[in-house]
Give the backbone structure.
Amino acid sequence: MSSRLALRYFAVLMFATGAWQVAGGQMPNPYGSSITVDDAKKAAAPALAEATKNHWAVAVAIVDPAGTLVYYEKMDNTQLGSAIVAVDKARSAARFKRPTKAFQDALAAGGEGLRILGIEGAVPVEGGFPLIVEGKIVGAIGVSGATSAQDAQCSKAGADTLK
């Protein structure tokens, strides 16, 4: 077994047992039924409005709790790489039950936080938030195209809509 594969198994084991927590650990909310397309559009609209208001070109992705894409929209002139990054941020937030900023902060702290690099699907870039409806995680929103903090500003506007 390669050392990279061993590290990946170790990191997954640590997450599964709860032995390792990142700053701003997982949300205690249980998973709920998948977000509907209508609710996904409702979450995307304020994120896109925030980007438009600030003249940022972004892509917005909404996924269900498993990370399957439910809704996607990319503004004109958004950099092409952001199309994939927005989906990856949303998947990470949904699957790990936490904002992606938690991974970013843990990685920036160094030390044990560097283990995040070995966890498949953990995106350590701000801009992904779980979506909560009636106390349950129904999916997540990811935004990409501006700076990480600006992506998070847009993403949070969308996430706050459904609470």
Summary: Confidence is low (pLDDT under 50) at residues 3-23. The radius of gyration is 15 Å. Strands lie at 59-63, 69-74, 128-133, 136-144. The chain has one domain: 3-161.
